[in-house]
Amino acid sequence: MALCRSRSLRTRFAAAIAALTLTLAGCESGAGSRSHDGRQRLTVAAVPLTDSAALYLARDRGLFAKEGLDVDIRPVQQSIQALPALLKGQVSVIASANYVTYLQAYEKGTLDLRILAEGVRITPHMMDVLVSKDSGIRTPADLAGKKVAVAVLNNIQSLTLNAILDAEGVGRPVYRQILFPQMGPALERDQVDAVHAVEPFDTAIQDELGARVLLDGGSGPARSLPASGYVTTRDFTQKHAKAAAGFRRAIEAASKIAAEDPGAVRAELPKYTKVTADQAKSIHLPTYPVAADAARLRRLVHLMREQALLLRS
Length: 313
Hints:
InterPro entries: SsuA/THI5. This protein is of the alpha/beta class. Helix content is 42%, strand content 19%.
């Protein structure tokens, strides 16, 4: 299904999902490399966050193998780092892909986006604004004009924090881009006044530095928003429709396991993140949806428009 650039983003976004459905209903039009046992090989880039838990569960529970897929997971520090490889076909899918970044790339025409499956939705304390234990910042109002670290500028973290602060009628901070693994050291060295950390880094920074939770990043207007997903290109879904459909089924089956048994996620986290088994027991997990929810995605698009992260009406 061809997409018209003059359509509203809402229509185009719905078309992206509809196009995927149509593509998946058709015949596989391409052939990728195959493993020795005949399974189709897929390379998936993933950030080592709780967002990626369903991906690892699908691999370790044999759900990809059941679909005839041999999935190779390549860790990246930011999902956007994998975008060039996705466009070149060197990566098939990006997991834990921050919707804000990829919707912006879609609007700009950089990426002909297709969402294979929803990743996670925001829950209370799956991300927090943390300050050092002796910080003079005591309330969200104190953040006005202060330096707050986020992993990527103009992204889901600043989008949701701005929305929370706007709802409370207080001023916004100034954002600094710092990768999640470097947020703890940056806070310890007073390079920033606060960090907006996502699990499992959130819990790790609290444990290691005694950092204090100033604000629940999953509260208010941020709660239940879809944060990330499994994204690919239209070209991939057209050439490898059968593999795309199998990947989606495997992720949705793994998300069902994650939703019904949080212990399965907690057991998986120490395998691909730096958190310990003890830390994994207390981490705040996101929601792992078993299917995409268009209404929630529209909420995200609306919020992005309000903050001028999407420019077209």
